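tool=predict chain=A
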Amino acid sequence: MSYAIQWVRSLIFNAQMYVAMLVFGIVYMIPAIISEKGAVAACHGYCRYIRWSAGWIIGLKSEIRGEPPTDEVMVAPKHQSFLDVLMIYGAIPRGKFIFKAILKYAPVVGQFGLRIGCIPVDRGKRGQAIKKMIADVEAGRARAGQLIIYPQGTRIAPGVKAPYKVGTGALYKQLAQPVVPVATNVGVFWPKRGVYRKPGTAVFEFLPRIEPGLEVDAFMKKLEEEIEIACDRLNKEAGFNG
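tool=predict ok
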């Protein structure tokens, strides 16, 4: 398949992805207002739709490996594209993200995110931001689910090294919950920027959980090593050698 044809298919996919988001938001508006379960059903339905449409429109299949958690844990994934947000949420029963506070004003995403229990966090001075994040998470603990936090805080392209932020370690210590790392190679097919999406199979691998009890420094080192080693392996599997 030529680059031009795949680019057009990618453009069509990207456009319909946002149209579908609006449609799901309208269809599930009343159920989401009535019950939090309605919002969760909407988000899971949208995740399934995008996974399905990516497969036949742009030829991007997806595979879940490992054991997605169903109990009260933290989930710490590698963040490479919007698709990993959807795939990880769709694989677990009651995910709730820690996300940038600005996103709560985004149409559909913000309203449904808050309804399913996502926790907006303001970026600011490191110490103040961490304290506020911990307080907000503690306030939201009554809502059952798996807390999802991206340890690097933003999308990182395959092969690019970026620091893991200590906020994940602070939550690990404060909540005393197991942490499930997640590795992926989706960035090989779905880059951080641009329209073009490559065909192939994106893998999302839930790694063995890290039990509570480690010191923060030891935890952060273990988390980074396990995710990065697994991502390098998955990237090579996808043909990336950068």
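The radius of gyration is 18 Å. The domain at 61-237 is CATH 3.40.1130.10 (Glycerol-3-phosphate (1)-acyltransferase).
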